[in-house]
TrEMBL record:
N-terminal signal peptide: none
UniProt entry keywords in alphabetical sequence: Pyridoxal phosphate
Highest classification ranks of the organism: Eukaryota, Metazoa, Cnidaria, Myxozoa, Myxosporea
DNA repair recorded as keyword: no
Cross-referenced PANTHER family: PROLINE SYNTHETASE CO-TRANSCRIBED BACTERIAL HOMOLOG PROTEIN (PTHR10146), PYRIDOXAL PHOSPHATE HOMEOSTASIS PROTEIN (PTHR10146:SF14)
Single GO term (MF): pyridoxal phosphate binding
Official protein name in the record: Pyridoxal phosphate homeostasis protein (Trinotate prediction)
Length: 161
């Protein structure tokens, strides 16, 4: 396992690079009042004590790609105020309930089908859970017309009333 001081140095370097790149981008594109991009530390295969160490360095967002691992780590670390968990793996519909009842679940990255979106939505409604941030995966279907215009076909549409 990598020494803690190396992890901290790497974390600080990545944070610094994000801030520097974002500042340059913001200045050149006249972007104002926008939050920095979010750094999600993927904690796959990391023991909970190491996640706790990285949390103490100021990192609040952690990603896991297995629901069971995410759920177990979130339970063990639920006392860490402000920790936010991201699910970054493929969702199996039979494990959605376990996913949405995960402590401090902040975001599901990403939903790749209408059916999965509906399963997540129905589980949240059925069990009266809080809202969860979700990223929808959009796969563009490239259609070339006689003018070489690229069009995107939506995977599905959501109606909001």
């Amino acid at each position: 396992m990598e020494p803690l001081k190396n992890i901290e140095a790497s974390l600080r370097l990545v944070q610094s690079q994000i801030e520097s790149s974002f500042e340059k981008y913001s200045q050149s594109n006249k972007v104002k009042n926008v939050d920095l991009p979010l750094l999600v530390a993927v904690s796959k295969l990391m023991p909970v004590h190491r996640i706790s160490d990285v949390y103490k360095m100021g990192q609040l967002h952690f990603g896991e790609n297995y629901i069971k691992e995410l759920h177990n780590k979130a339970l063990e670390l639920e006392s860490l105020a402000g920790i936010k968990w991201h699910f970054i793996g493929q969702i199996q519909t039979n494990k959605i309930f376990k996913l949405i009842k995960t402590k401090n679940l902040y975001m599901i990255q990403s939903i790749d089908s209408f059916e999965t979106a509906m399963h997540v939505n129905n589980a949240l409604l059925k069990h009266s859970f809080k809202n969860v941030n979700v990223l929808i995966q959009v796969i563009p279907l490239i259609l070339l017309s006689n003018r070489n215009i690229i069009a995107f076909k939506p995977l599905f549409q959501l109606k909001i009333s």
